[in-house]
Specification:
The protein is mainly beta. It is built from two helices and eight strands, in the order ααββββββββ. It has helices spanning about 1-15, 15-20, and strands spanning about 35-45, 45-50, 55-60, 65-70, 80-85, 90-95, 100, 110. The protein starts with a helix and ends in an 18-residue tail after the last strand.
């Protein structure tokens, strides 16, 4: 699954592929959402973000897989995530909004309305969000 893919990529980045391949290091499973997970994003400060049909975004530690925070505010499925270089988190939802969150504290900073179902977000090299 997607969560396992994130764990494998982290192990590769840390140079621990041999341990993983030999079965001594297992991928982490992240449990907590009540709906389908549609998107994952890795942010700075060892955080993984997951977006779900349960209308929440969950923040996980890449170190131990523990849930750190649940971000609430969307009123429909959260389909997309993007994390800026400074850690700012952008979440797109079928509620027609893009929400902007502080990556450090999880505080909701602003809502960008006027969209229809938001399926994807991307951050350009210049920092613009698309």
């Amino acid at each position: 699954g997607l969560c396992q893919d994130v764990a494998v990529k982290r192990q590769l980045r840390e140079g621990r592929w041999d341990e993983y391949a030999a079965g001594r290091l297992a991928p982490r499973r992240l449990h907590g959402h009540y709906g389908n997970v549609f998107s994952l994003a890795i942010g700075p400060n060892e955080k993984v973000y997951s977006a779900s049909s349960d209308t929440t975004v969950r923040v996980w530690s890449t170190r131990d897989g523990q849930l750190q925070q649940t971000l609430e505010g969307h009123t429909n499925c959260v389909r997309s995530l993007a994390v800026a270089a400074d850690g700012t988190l952008y979440t797109g939802s079928w509620d027609g909004t893009v929400r902007v969150w502080s990556g450090g504290t999880g505080v909701h900073l602003r809502t960008l309305a006027g969209h229809t179902d938001v399926f994807a977000l991307a951050i350009g090299a210049n920092g613009n969000v698309f």
